[in-house]
Amino acid sequence: MAEHGFTVAVGNRSYAKVEATVARAKAEGDLPIVGTDGPEEFCSKLQKPRKIVILVQAGKPVDETIEKLSEYLEEGDVIVDGGNEWYPNTIRRSEDLVKKGIYFVGMGISGGEEGARKGPSLMPGGPKEAYDLLEPIIVKCAAQVGDEACTGYLGPVGSGNYVKMVHNGIEYGDMQLIAEVYDIIRKVVGMSNHDISKLFEEWNKGELESFLIEITSKILSKDDDLTGEGQVVDYVLDKTGMKGTGRWTVQEAAEQSVAAPTIAASLDTRYISGRKDERVAASKILEGPTEIPAIDKKQVLDDLQAALYCSKVASYAQGLGIIKAASDKNGWDVDLSLCARMWRGGCIIRAQLLSKIQNAMTEDKSLANLLVDPTFSSEINARQMAWRRIVTLAVASGIACPALSASLMYYDQYRRESLPANLVQAQRDFFGGHTYERIDREGTFHSAWTDAHKDIGDLSGRTAGEI
Hints:
Elements: E1 8-10, H1 15-27, E2 33-35, H2 39-44, E3 51-54, H3 60-70, E4 78-81, H4 87-98, E5 103-110, H5 112-118, E6 121-125, H6 128-141, E7 144-145, E8 148-149, H7 159-189, H8 193-203, H9 211-221, H10 245-255, H11 261-273, H12 276-282, H13 297-330, H14 336-343, H15 353-363, H16 374-397, H17 402-415, H18 421-432
Parallel strand pairs: 1-2, 3-4, 4-5
Antiparallel strand pairs: 5-6, 7-8
Helix pairs in contact: 7-10, 7-11, 7-13, 8-9, 11-17, 13-16, 13-17, 14-15
């Protein structure tokens, strides 16, 4: 922010950290950063209407920080929470602060350490009046792709946190998909870390170009400094941590009745990874295939590239579907093409693919699903057999590919005019009298499936409670 010419006041519970920040700003170009000691002095240094960004741990620390700051704020001031917060908390805080005339904005921020200095993706949601006050600052500070800033007004309070939450869910899926491809390459194809690194580096020059592909190449080539043998990645314990945003995304997918199997599979995989001791014990008991299928190396690598691309498209389709459903339900009117634009730069899921997603959502605002966009449907139709070969190869080789297979199954279910859901609904009617609809006539029906079934009377109330 200071590098873009804005004078910034900073505060922290630890004044030593404030002093260190001011000293660093001076050393890195005499940047206009002003240190303050305590919330009263901090607020007194700000030009009115005050615009404050808080970056603290989600939950109670946010409430405590707001309470301390609001004592010194006035009507028309703006507080922005830039943390990964559960969106109902943001709505609650906004409702409390609006009584004092203070605007509250929940702004998702993605970019990690690099984005923090070079420009992150900024996803704000809150009162439009508050956004208008912030816009001159955040448009300059956000990542830039071409002549577009990776930010914009998403909608009312809650929408910014929601979009960031789903961004993180997509991130979970993307990372898991890449990990599964890596696993197949090393276990089935038999390539070394350095060779896989070169392959990912090459993939990063084409349709798979993305931040996560780029860093994966770098990770795989990093030699281990502690032992002097092999690469660091082989010494990293196979237990994946998490902060909770992926779980929130899956919970919200269920709440909105939107299928998100790729994201859910990536979350389940993290749970299983955490049971390391159990897996070690199970590996001595449970068996897998004893023979690995013969392969054509070039064919498999080409198929993996195609499968990864198709799975990524499916994952984005699921994420955007969650956002759309929540937006419709809450009246946010979130522009999905804006989401894609925000994610094109600065953030963890930034990728070349997002340019095409932005175009698809711009050209057809009512697009039901990314998979049926003319460009993407053509690409996936041409690659779907490669996708199937990879999932089949992984299964035959005993290599778990939950996200790749979940993505393919999402595609296969979505593309089918008829699903075996007819049998499931018939089962529900058999044991619970839940009724069913027919394909040959209008209305609600119930069958006396056996002699033991009796007339259940008026059917109109039998579907009460359905979601």
